[in-house]
Amino acid sequence: MSTIASISTAPGIGGIGIIRMSGENTFKILDKIFVQKNKEEINNIKGYSIKYGHIVDETEVVDEVLVSYFKAPKSYTTENMCEINSHGGNIVVKRILELCLKNGANLAEPGEFTKRAFLNGRIDLTQAESVIDVINAKSEREVKAGIKQLEGELSKKINKIKQKILDIMVNIEVSIDYPEYDDIEEVQNKQVLDMLDDAQNELNILVKSFENGKILKEGIRTAIIGKPNAGKSSLLNAILKEERAIVTEYEGTTRDTIEEFITINGIPLKLIDTAGIRDATDEVEKIGVDKSKKIAEEADLIIAIFDCSKELTDDDKKILKIIKNKKSIIILNKIDLNKKISKNNETLSSVSDKIIEISAIKNIGIENLYEKISEMFNLNEINIDNEVLITNIRHKDLINKAIQKIQETKTTIENHMPIDIVAIYIKDILEALGSITGETISEDIINEIFSKFCLGK
Ligand code: GDP
Question: Which residue in 212, 329, 407, 419 has a CA-CA distance of 20 to 30 Å to 453?
Fold first, then answer.
């Protein structure tokens, strides 16, 4: 395989920049561009060592650097590798990369280092995929789930189930080879069916965990709606001011909306159309019933806010109609003022049993909101420490496929199909499971997975 090079640090100004190389010729290329302080011959260089010196272009010094050496097979990719730590910024790192390329390296594709780690057998596909999950994580919980997967927890689980299926296969192959043992067929069928049931149950648990994994990864799509002046932007500010809120802003998936991903006390919320709330400075423009309807359609959770110092109006009732039959929390805001409506109001309680009273301005009662959300989405039950969570739709689809194949296998056995037909169905189960860890998977899919990676990883 060729030797590849890439800048691994994010573009922009920073203290340090890192240029990575991997491949057989890594040390040879380094030898041409790196002048070490106390020079050691290539062959004498030890892995896991760091050398100080200068990157040079012929006689010109380009930068003062530290170079980490990783000797095959003990490196990220299992090949000879190095990481050049230079000064940060845009110019120096680019210049060093160009020098690597000029001296024989090829520019790495996105994710190519990790792809090599996979192709060279150091990690399996679920582990490789978790690398990108960790990098893209928006919450600590998500990182935790990613790291667990990187440590091989999901692969272990899948391989265990696969082993069970393989045991069944061995059982069946014996029957194919020794058809004279026909009389034990009934006993054996029962045993095989039981084993298949077991595997199916375990896979079902994994599929269920996807719901939780999805929440961690994508956040609960949350809309804050309410009449103008109910206190939407005040609530938003109170949430964002929360000490432990981690905010990431990015463009919404639907046009004209801004979405913010925030994590509070481990609760991942994807707030829909916060721009509509923040920028609504003009009274007339303030987000109203029509817009609320549109936003509510996209949400997993609606937080509907009402001014409790005023009687419910027709517009309020329209909003209640919007949230009826949806997962929603009703907030009665402004409890610091004279209350005209309370939690016990029948119009409200007929729509939702989750009603909380707060003062957004005085920051009273907001934590009840987080508690209610945790309850509604069973977030307290998501125990990353003890559970393997599926966070990747590719994994979920393949597990579902395996479940379906198990079901089909069971039917063939129950219908007393010839044993060699049953064996064919079982091979399909094994193939679906093998695709998760990357044992049986096409090159196209591998390329697609790694194309989503960032450069230098
Ligand atoms: P929005 O139109 O729904 O975004 O409402 P705002 O958040 O802009 O609030 C409208 C008005 O109500 C502002 O003058 C806020 O200061 C005021 N307000 C918001 N929350 C409270 C509260 O908890 N108590 C009191 N007394 N006033 C509030």
Answer: 212
State which ligand 1 atom lies nearest to the alpha carbon of 226: 3
Which residues approach ligand 1 with their CB closer than 6 A? 226, 228-234, 277, 286, 333-334, 336-337, 359-362
> CA-CA distances (angstroms) from residue 92 to 6, 29, 64, 99?
13, 18, 10, 11
How many angstroms does the Cα of residue 336 sit away from the middle of ligand 1?
11
Q: In this predicted structure, what is the pLDDT of residue 359?
A: 95
Among protein residues, the one whose CA lies closest to atom 14 of ligand 1:
229
Per CATH, domain 219-381 is 3.40.50.300: yes
CATH code of the domain made up of 128-215+392-450: 1.20.120.430
Residue 384 reports pLDDT greater than 90 = no
Structure tokens at 173: 């192959």
Q: Contact, 341 vs 351, CB < 8 A?
A: no
Judge if pTM exceeds 0.90: no
Q: Which architecture characterizes domain 4-108 according to CATH? A: 2-Layer Sandwich (3.30)
Q: Ligand 1 centre from 324 Cα, in Å?
A: 24
Instruction: Report domain extents, the chain.
Output: 4-108, 128-215+392-450, 219-381
The end-to-end CA distance of the chain, in Å, is 17
